[in-house]
Amino acid sequence: MPAAPALAADERRIEYNIEAGDLGEALKTVSRLSGKEVIFNSEAVLGKTAPRLHGSFSADEAVRTLLQGTGLTARFRKDVILIRGRSEPSGDLADRSAGADEILVTGSRIRGARSTSPIIVATREEIVDAGQYNLGDYIRSIPQNFAGGQNPSVAGGGNQGAENQNANGSSNLNLRGLGADATLTLINGHRVAYDAVFGGVDISAIPLAAIERVEIVADGSSAIYGSDAVAGVANVILRRDLDGLITSARLGGSTPGGNFQQEYSVVGGQNWGSGGVMGAFDFNRSTAINGRDRNYTSEMDGSTTLFPRQRQYSGVLSAHQVLSSSIDFDIDAQYSNRTTEIAYPYTSTLDVTAEGLLSQPKAETYSVTPTLRINLSGRWRVSLTGTHGKSNTHLLSRAFSGGEEYAQVRIKYDGRVDSAEVNGEGPLATLAGGDVRLAIGAGFRSVGLDASSRTTFSGTTSTSYDISPIRENFFGYGELALPLIGSANARPLLHRLLLTGAVRYENYRGIGGLATPKLGLVYEPNSSVAIKASWGKSFKAPTLFEQYQTTKGTLISGEAYPDNPGGRPALLLYGGRRDLQPEKATTWTTSIAFRPIRALRVEFGYFDVRFNQRIVEAIGNTDRAYGDPIYDGMITYNPTEAQVLTALAQLQQPLANAAGRPLDVSQISAIFDDRLQNVSRQHVNGVDIFAEYEHQFGPNNRLSITGSASYLKGKQQISPGQPLTAIVGRIFYPAHWRARGGASWQRSDVTFSSFVNYTDGAKDTILSPSQDVSGFTTVDLSVRYSPTLWSGIGKGLEFSLSATNFLNQEPPRIRVSDPTQIPYDSTNASVTGRIISLTISKVW
């Protein structure tokens, strides 16, 4: 690998005259002439050619020009340029030295560490080449992710699974289908405020133009990052070094009708040697897909929302500056504002404004994170980081009857996060296999939620809940990487051996303390095979809404209950409870990756998650539960008057009476305690498969083929004594199989891409008898044209044309008992149909 002494910090421009030829030699020439170190793996550039480089360029500009069309990406630092393949995880450059410890891999806090878990990586270019234009579209295409939970694709107002919602049009990651609150989403490695009350993060609030790549670790990571990382963690990494300005405009729409899209974005940046700044702004708007737009929803009223109308403004700012030879300062800021409209008609024949509910959510998010990094002697680095963020969702729902508005419901979910953290990382000792490195840190985090629901009916306003809880926690962690075997002491069948260990302790006020460990291993018998394994504990703290939502009660008729003389009424308690504890999980993964030939990489992985103490309403249907011994401990039969009065004293709202008779505490037949509690357990496991092939045909032709698949199975027990039920392979739940595969062919200035997406069929168990529902397969096509020989106003232009679901595949039908219900599974199949989109961008 080339090395050259660093020159002054300013990016000076020099004249280059390098003929087209071997890419590695061209990069070495740039390094030699510019004095800026260019680091790359020799395998990454093997067989790749570079175009002729003639003219005046800075070192960064010269490298960007040489890498065009190679499939490689570069990370630009003050005095070094790091080059890697697009599909390689960040930091996975083998046998590198200078500058290698600058790279931080998602899933570890140790610079330059090798991940002990498989990493899913997608660059911005790969996402665009796949015909996807926001991060919400991207995450819904990942086989390891479930589109249920909180996502704009979810239709039906909650009747397609109680945990599947579309409260505000946001897009939350839901790895392994364990819930959006069990996947942690970060921006540049730091937390942001939760979205609404579901515990997820709206990843679509980040404009695609502002990101460099996304890294996802589908493995428990609470020992590294704390709460929520049970199913895994996603890290959205922003663009850092950008010189110039890029503008783009996109128009598109669904050919079956609806979903007309407009998007306009601008991203620009400036580097000045010792620092740089990047800013991006994006505006997008799309019309709704309604029941009238699809023939398979013809029995529904035409105003029914299948996919919501949205409008969003979003922006990102990222800046970095070298303050001295040992101190760097970074700051990231993000803002998003989105409005949505969703219509729920009450009947199949009348418009929503005649009989129905019209919901108009508004979501606003922002976060600011400054970071100060201090480079100490001995290659240690200390970082001081703070974050302030908010995510506000305000919903106005208007209810109509007889063509008149008769009620309004105003719901507010204002979440916030404030955190401060100090951490240090560096080598402890040097072994033959490499540096023993340690990362340690401690911090404080405060999470708050202002939530309220107010209903105005006939001029009178009532409050369902109005809470403002705050949760504070202190944490400390440590992570150790122990390289026993490395390139310096490798031997037959022992090319590399790395052991890792991490532990984190968190103490929540009002909940208590919890420690989570994680152990990992990387074993490479030779340079073509890598075996990885990890085991750990993870946890998820109860959401503030779960813990602090209002405790309510209803007096219900007891005439339907057997063994209930005189049909005495029963008392039902439901809502939150303050004594909820964290949900806990044990996770382990193992994988093997190998290269049978240089151009092909294949990886197989197995995962297992045992999730205990999950928070649920354990009873649900009181008619079914009455007299069933599996609900013992949740039902008090023939309670005393004192027990009834104690239960009534816990209510935070007046008792609702649905029994048809006045309350008489001496005549209560049973007390059903269906408040949230830590009693459920889940077990999910499965297999991930990934393959990638890349080959260069001559100087201007490159073929890339990728494929990814995930098989999942899982069961859930609501409470001890209840039977195990499937949570995979049923409608409104994750499918057993999901897969995505495709190819990209780059020939000179044109890139063609095609991908196939597959979601396995499911069992429809909603109505009896159960029935099989077929799978859902779509084909995506895209072409990108980047003319390099155009000059004048045409210089820097790029054109992209995409057709997602090119064959216009319709979602498979499911049975419904009511014509107002959605007749397809919106969590596993998309209603958008074929989407044609044209994008024009220009580099200025």
Tell me what the structure shows.
With 844 residues, the chain is mainly beta. It folds into 3 domains: 14-106, Phage tail protein beta-alpha-beta fold (3-Layer(bab) Sandwich), CATH 3.55.50.30; 128-542 and 580-617 and 677-843, Maltoporin, Chain A; 552-578 and 618-675, no CATH class. Helix content is 7%, strand content 51%. The chain has a 22-stranded antiparallel beta barrel. Strands 32-34-29-28-33 form a 5-stranded mixed sheet, covered by helices on one side. Strands 8-10-11-9 form a 4-stranded mixed sheet. A hairpin with a 6-residue loop joins strand 12 and strand 13 (261-271). The longest helix is centred in the first third of the chain and has 12 residues, at 23-34. The protein is globular. Residues 1-10 and 86-101 have low confidence and may be disordered.
- How many distinct beta strands? 44
CATH topology of the largest domain: Maltoporin, Chain A
By CATH reckoning, the class of the largest domain would read Mainly Beta
Tally of helical runs? 9
**CATH superfamily caption of the largest domain:** TonB-dependent receptor, beta-barrel domain
Beta content comes to over 45%
The assigned CATH architecture of the largest domain is Beta Barrel
Low-confidence stretches: 1-10, 86-101
Shape: globular
- Helicity, as a percent range: under 10%
